[in-house]
Amino acid sequence: MRSLRCGIAAAFLFAPLAAAGEGRYDPKVELGRRLFMDPTVSRGGKFSCASCHDPERGFSDPRRFSEDETGTSRRHSQPVVDLSHEQPLHWDGEFGSLNELLTARIAPPAEALQVAIGSRTRQFERSRATGLEPNEQQFQQTISRLTPPYYGPVTPGRPPPVSPVLRLGEDDRYDAAFRAAYGSSEVTTKRIIDALHAYVLSIRSLENAYDRYAAGDPAALGPAERRGLSLFTGKADCASCHTIGESRRFTDDLFHNTGVAFRDITLEFGGALGGDGGAGELTFVAQDLGKFKTPSLRDVARRAPYMHNGAFATLEEVVDYYDKGGTLNGRLDKHVRPLALTEGERGDLVAFLKALTGDERPGVGPLPKQSRRSRLKVVDLKGRPMKGLTVEVHAAGDRLDGGRREPPQIAVTDPEGFLAFDFPAWTHVRLASEGHEIQYGWMIPDSVRQMTVTAAPTGAVALKVRPAEGQKLPDHLLAGEGESGKRKAYFERVRVLPDRSAIYVAGARGGKGMANVMGREFEIDLSGGWAEPLDLRPEPQG
Predict the structure, then answer these.
(1) Section 293-318 average pLDDT
(2) DSSP-assigned states of every residue in 323-376
(3) DSSP string, 188-226
(4) Average pLDDT score over residue span 85-99
(5) What separation in angstroms does the CA of 446 have from each of 33, 336, 367, 430?
(6) Which helix (H) or strand (E) segment is 422 a member of?
(7) Which ranges of 130-188 would DSSP assign to H, the alpha helix?
(8) Of residues 173, 151, 172, the one with CA closest to residue 162
(9) DSSP letters along 29-45, please?
């Protein structure tokens, strides 16, 4: 595919902020920041964007392989820093733009699937148009086996996971933030994607020692770091792929075979393609098997482990690998060759790489200037105020300017069930109370000033069910454990809410159970506290 070979120029010119958290407060960006941190804004509701792109780790993942609702992935996450609107994304260039990636993550299954099909078809056609002779059989097999990406195939007889639109519509946590960004509190797929898009594009790496050196301060780099720079651009030839350029991003945004994918397996179409074929699995060109996108080196010291599969735990290991010439294979990039570096030279090269890391992590948000005091009402499952309840208020989400890790605040509800506290310098809080789970354990954003939250006792299982239009909810539900249905959990309806949803309660039993609700099977957590809400409404398409 010609675009993979030539790359897509990133529309990014390095312009570091003077300090973290400075700049205009943009309601759309700040909504996106908070949605990025919240697990409820995902298909399965358990993993946020930040679960794999941790802001404190350079928006990468400290684990070798990332995880989501479908299990452990086969790759280490790439950082989402210094991106442009259109550039190849993912290690294999799966998506041509940030909007495509977010659509695949957030949009309804049919739309997400079309993005996956369109991306592969587009790249196959480009490969064929440029005379690269893509493998048509492999292309057809890939298209025929595609399921909606990232959250796995839809299991026959069971509904897909509740969409983020429906999940966010379960309460009013983000009403104020959506109004500030879009003029109304309506939650739509388009708005979620748009806010996340605005936030991700706002994440910029900050000034580092090399930037100061390049700007004319010769003392910004020490002797070892300056020797490392000479090696980087000379003998070690790192800059052939990690190009410096005006943007100082240290990447050419192209795809290269450095041999890492060939350490344990030979990659061939129709042969032993049991490993990770990288860009070749998208272009369907054998020559591209084992090629992966060159990552930026800005903030690289924050982002261990390294490579598409997290193969190396330290920068020292990375330098040693390239010093030895990578892993020989018939498609190894011409710039990867034995370097014959001395021990001192390897140390100097690592010192220079560490100098590419900013003094502050990227993307620290501004602290809103308005009052950050919140007053929440805590009620029990029947809607009665819970007075005298001791609650821990934990900082959560992303730290803002001036934020730091602190012990939780302790607050006690008053006779009417109200809980008052000042938000820490973070995007969210979580509320915890011994013997209770408050509002599903969800994160509460700092835009909330007043809200009613429900506390479920951990000695019982609370389940909220919202019917589709015209459906009537039963007085009770049964959930059986396993196929035999033994040890049934009896759910009694205890409260009907103004939005026509209802709360059901059963005794805690531990483990998972299956409930048949309106002829549809749902898995229910029977361990105590809140179970995931069941929403029987059709998924919105907007």
Answers:
(1) 96
(2) HTT----TT--TT-------HHHHHHHHHHHHTTS-SS-TTPBPPPSS--EEEE
(3) -HHHHHHHHHHHHHH------HHHHHHTT-GGGS-HHHH
(4) 91
(5) 12, 49, 10, 11
(6) strand 418-422
(7) 136-145, 164-168, 175-182
(8) 151
(9) HHHHHHHHH-TTSSSSS
- Rounded to whole angstroms, the Cα distance separating 354 from 474 reads 62
| pTM across the whole model | 0.91
Q: Which amino acid is at 268?
A: E
| Short-list 369, 387, 87, CA closest to 255 | 87
Contact status, residue 287 vs residue 266, Cβ threshold 8 Å: no
Helix/strand/coil for 70: coil
Residue 191 in tokens: 């708005």
Q: What share of the chain is helix, strand, coil (3-state, %, to 5)?
A: 30, 20, 50
How many angstroms separate the CA atoms of 268 and 510, rounded?
47
For residue 37, what are its two tokens?
């941190």
Rounded Cα gap, residues 152 and 112, in angstroms: 12
Q: Does the pLDDT value for residue 176 go beyond 90?
A: yes
Helix (H) or strand (E) segment spanning residue 51: helix 49-52
Tell how far CA 245 is from the center of its chain: 29
Q: Are strands 534-535 and 460-466 parallel, antiparallel or unpaired?
A: parallel
Instruction: Give me the chain's average pLDDT, please.
Output: 88
CB atoms within 10 A of CB 193: 21
When pLDDT is averaged across residues 79-92 and rounded to a whole number, the result is: 90
Tokens of 237: 């030839």
